[in-house]
Predict the 3D structure of the following.
Amino acid sequence: LATQIGGGNWNNSPNDLIVHLGTFAFSSSQSTTSTTQTNAKDAYITLLTTLLQSCTSLRVSNNGENKPLLTKLAFHPDLLPSLWEYVQYKSTRAKAASAGGDGLMEALTCTFCDLFVHHLLAVDDEEFILSYTNKSRSDENDDGRRKKAIMAEDVILYLRSVLHELYWTRPVTASDVIVPVSSIHAGSDNDGADAAHMTARCHRARLLLSGTKLWNALHERWCRLLRTFPFCDEQVWWFPRLVSKERDDDGVFFVGESESSTRSSYAAGMGLEPVDSNDDDEDDDDGLDEDSTSSPMDVDEDDNNNSSSTAADAESDALASSFRDPKMARILTSIPQSIPFDRRVKLFESLLNADKARTQDETAAFRRMMMNMGNMDEMENGMMGREQVTIRRDNIYADSMNNLNKLGKKMRRKVQVTFINKHGAVEAGIDGGGVFKEFLDDLITEAFNPESGHVEDGTHGPLFGVTPLQTLHVGVSPDVGAFSADNSRVLSHYEFLGRVLGKAVYESILVEPQFCLPFLNKLLGKQNTLDDLKNLDPDYYRHLSTLRKMNEEEIKDLGLSFELTIGGNDNSKSGKKILKTVELVPGGSHIPVTKQNAIRYVHLVAHRRMNVEGSRETHAFLRGFRDLIPAAWVRLFSAYELQKMISGDDTIKGIDVNGMRSVMQYSGGYHPSQPIVRWLWEVVEEMTPRQQRMFLKFMTLCSRQPLLGFHALEPVPCIQQIRLRDNHNNHQGGEGG
C-alpha cells in the first residue's frame, strides 16, 4: 500500500484509504492471535477512533450524505463483522469490557457502536430479523473462512455489562469528558503517561455516549417488534439489581423533611411551574407544518432543532434532580429500560404523589380559603383544593369541554363532579372520588370514539381515526379527513383530549383507548421512522418498501419524483375531496426517483406521513397532555409501556381472580371459609372476561385492574356483611353483601 501511494499509483479518496487499511488489518488470511496482526488491528482502531470523533454525534442521525467515511465503513461487507469478532476476542482476554489500561478496549467498542448504529439506519425490521437474530446464519469471507455473525442479543448482553460499569460500578464523571490540553503538553517527565491516562478516560466517556446510542437504538427496534418477533427476553435489558443508599430504586421520592422545604423541592427539583403557569412544554414537532420540506434525511440532527433538543435536555435535567443519587438519575434519564418496568412505575407514582401533595393539599387550600373569606371571588374558585363542575349526563363531552378545558394546569387539582340526569335533576350523593372515576371513564370512552364527531358545527369527522390494526391515530390522514391546520377551534378539541388523557394518567385511572405506536412515540417526544409506518398503515408500508427492491427500469417506469400528492375531505358540508401536491425536498418536482436515491425517497415519504402530516393537531394534544404529565416523566417508559400506563396490561383477559382473592379483606362476620364466599369466587371465575371487567367496574368504578396488581389497589377491597332489617317480622336477619 505504501508503495502504491509513494509511486503515485493511489488515485482513490482518503476515505478509501481508511477502508483499505481496515480491510488489510482485519484480513482473514492473518491469524487472529498473531502479534503482528494484533498490533495492526490495535493501531487501526486507535486511528479510526480519532477519525470518527469528527463524524459521529450524540444522537442517531439519518444524514449519511454528510458522513461519507462513516457510511463507507458501516456498510463495508466484512469490516463490521470483523470488528465484532475482535471485540469479543479482546473482551474475553481482558475479562471485563472496561478494565482500565490504555483505553484500547473502550476505543474498540466505541468504534463498533458508532458503525453498527449507523448501519442499522438502513436496515428494515425484516432484514434485521434475518441478519441479526438468526443464530444459524453465517457468512464466508473471500477465502472461504466462516465469519462469526453479529447477533443482536449478544450485542445487548455485552453492552449491558459495559454500560453497567460506565453508569454504576465505575461511573464516568465530568472530568473524563474534558481533556485539559495543558496537562497533555506539560513539560514533566510523565507527559506520556499522563496523556495516555487522560486519553483512556476520554475513551470511556465516548463509549458511554456511543454505547448508549446503540443500546437505545436496539431497544427501540425491540419495542417495535415486541408484538410480532421479540428477539430477546425483557430481562435481557435489566441491570443487576441497583442498590442505592438513597433507595431511589425502590420508588421512594426524596424531598426535604419540613413542609416548606418539601414544597420548594417539588417546584425546583421536578421543574414544575406553579399550577397557574401558562408556559408550555415544547415537543419535537414545534414549528413543523404540513408544507415543510425538512426531514431527518436533509440535515444533521445535531445542527437542527437545537431549541427542541435543549428543551428535552432541560426536562431530563429536571427529572434527574428529583433523585438524590446522581447515578440513578443518569440511568433513569438515559437508559430507563435497564430498570424493570414495575420499579419504574413505582418511581413514576412517587413523582405523581409528590406533585399531588402540592396541587391537591386540601389543608393548605383550606388555610387559603380562611384567609380570603372576605374575598368572594377567591372563595368561589374551588373549595378545599378542588374544582367543582356540573355535568349533564346526556351532554357529557360538551359540558366537560366547556368546564374543564379552561382550567389548563389547574386540572391537576381534585375535580368534584355533580351529575344532572336526563330529567334535569341533580343526582344525589357527594363525589368522594368514585363519581369522578366513573365520569372520567365515560368521558374518555365518548371522547375517543372514532364514530363520534365533537366539533360543534358537525362538519368535521372524528378527531381520532382507526388504523387497520384497530388502534387510534390522529384523524388527519388522507383516508380519514384533513382538518384545517389554522382552525384553532379544532385544535382546542385536541388540546382538551390531551388534558383528559393526562388527567387519567395523573390520577392512575386506567382507560380503554389503544393508540398506535407512532402516536405513542410522539407522546414520548420521539421522531417516527420508516419501520414505524407499518404500525399506522401496513399496506402503505408494504407498497413503499417494495420500491427499495425494484431495479432501475422498474423504478423508472413508475415515473416518480420527489413530490407527494396528499388529500382529504374538505371542511365544508359538501365533503369534496381536496388534493394537494407537496415537494419532499426543495425543487423535488424536478428530481426523478432512481435506484440511487430510492431509499432516500422512501424515508422522506414515511417522514412526511408520520411526522409532518397532523403535526399541529398532535402538538395541540401534547400541549394539553403535558399540562398534567411533564414530558420527562413519560420518557421513563417505551411506547408500548406507555400504552400499559394508559390502559393496563392488555395481555390479561378479564381480571386476575386469584390476585384479587389474595388481597380481599372480610368484615361484618364474613371470612374466606364460608360457603357463600366460596360461591362468590366460583361465580367470578366462571364469568367471561367482559363480565369480569363489569364486575370490577361495579366494585371500583374502573373496568381495568391496577397496573401493578390488586395489591396496589387503594383502599384495599373488602367484602362486608350488612344485616338487613326484616320489616315483616321486625327482626334482623339474612346475610347481605
Q: What stands out?
A: The longest strand covers residues 386-392. The chain has a mean pLDDT of 77. Residues 510 and 647 are 5 Å apart (CA to CA).
